[in-house]
Design goal:
CATH superfamily of the largest domain: Aldolase class I
Shape: globular
CATH topology of the largest domain: TIM Barrel
Helix content: 40-55%
Radius of gyration: 20 Å
Distance between the termini: 29 Å
Largest sheet: 6 strands, parallel
Number of helices: 13
Order of helices and strands: HHHEHEHHEHHEHEHHEHH
CATH class of the largest domain: Alpha Beta
Bound molecules: iron/sulfur cluster
Length: about 300
């Protein structure tokens, strides 16, 4: 199979490209895939609020080894996770190509399917992950690495390679009290989300160090599973991020995901619901405009990857 990287047009003059993008903000190919997506929707879904086919085409992601050294109580991975071999580099590139065709240029691509930073590091194949990130950019996708981050915090030189050689700029870091496996923070001893603020601060400091050393703008998203056990801590977590501007410069998005009955999730009692998360969000952000912010803050229940 011919990879998309080999079929990309030669690089044009940067300023001419920028001028063209200014005059035509939606790339011709993107406009085509959006049109195709819209036309593929059943008429009942072609509503005024529909974003599929208008702003987005689909959520791009790779599937990998399904390996993770953590054993969170809420995990989307299958029960046979950690038994599946890491796919070859060629297979992962095929997945990236398939996503890219479906999304058009500039589509966000989650590099996931287990904790891939963990998987590639432990398998002694870190070079491959660097190449996967490079490849995603080379075909016109925007990769985001989904991870619990423990490998990166213990091996910052690996993160530095991903940033400098791979071009990685976005990481989604999963931190919450459903996690089992975080060194120094055994799940039985974490009683509330505030107990994990030192972990969040350690990631903040890591990004600031990498930024200072490399000059590249590494950014995070927080990925957080909301359960009955930690839902009342959501305002506290938001307040922690808002308390220091350096934190919000690094953590550009907070994603609160109500628990979903998926994968090897083991705690299925008293599920938290999106509206409940929305109310905590408004409380945490100290917002006074009520209805509008609640609307903006309502997270969707997701079966998708946290890392
Ligand atoms: S939820 Fe993420 S960090 Fe937790 S076990 Fe599953 S893949 Fe690992």
């Amino acid at each position: 199979m011919v990879s998309l990287a080999e079929t990309q047009p030669p690089k044009k003059n940067r300023w001419r490209e920028r001028w063209h993008a200014f005059r035509n903000p939606i790339h011709e190919e993107k406009a085509r895939v959006l049109r195709e997506r819209w036309n593929a929707l059943p008429p009942s879904l072609q509503t005024p609020n529909q974003i599929s086919g208008r702003h987005l085409t689909h959520c791009g992601f790779t599937l990998g080894a399904s390996y993770c050294s953590f054993h969170c109580t809420h995990c989307y991975l299958p029960k046979n996770a950690n038994e599946i071999p890491i796919p070859s580099l060629a297979q992962v590139k095929e997945q990236i190509d398939a996503n890219r065709r479906f999304q058009g240029p500039g589509g966000g691509l989650q590099i996931t399917g287990g904790d891939v930073a963990d998987a590639y590091w432990k398998a002694g194949r870190p070079d491959e992950l660097v190449e996967i990130i490079q490849y995603a950019y080379s075909v016109g996708s925007i990769p985001m690495l989904m991870t619990h981050g423990q490998t990166l915090i213990e091996h910052p030189e690996f993160l530095e390679r991903l940033v400098v050689e791979g071009g990685l700029r976005q990481i989604s870091v999963h931190v919450d009290m459903t996690q089992a496996g975080r060194h120094g923070f055994p799940i039985g001893r974490v009683k509330c989300e505030a107990d994990l603020h030192p972990v969040r601060q350690a990631f903040t400091d890591l990004a600031l160090r990498i930024r200072a050393k490399t000059g590249f703008p590494l950014e995070y998203a927080l990925s957080f599973t909301v359960t009955r056990r930690n839902i009342d801590d959501v305002p506290e977590v938001i307040r922690w991020y808002l308390a220091d501007p350096q934190r919000s410069h690094v953590w550009r998005m907070l994603s609160f995901q109500p628990e979903a009955d998926t994968g090897r999730t083991i705690s299925r009692s008293g599920r938290s619901r999106p509206m409940m998360c929305g109310r905590r969000f408004v409380r945490g952000s100290a917002c006074r405009c009520g209805a509008m912010c609640r609307f903006l803050a309502i997270p969707t229940a997701t079966a998708g990857p946290r890392s």
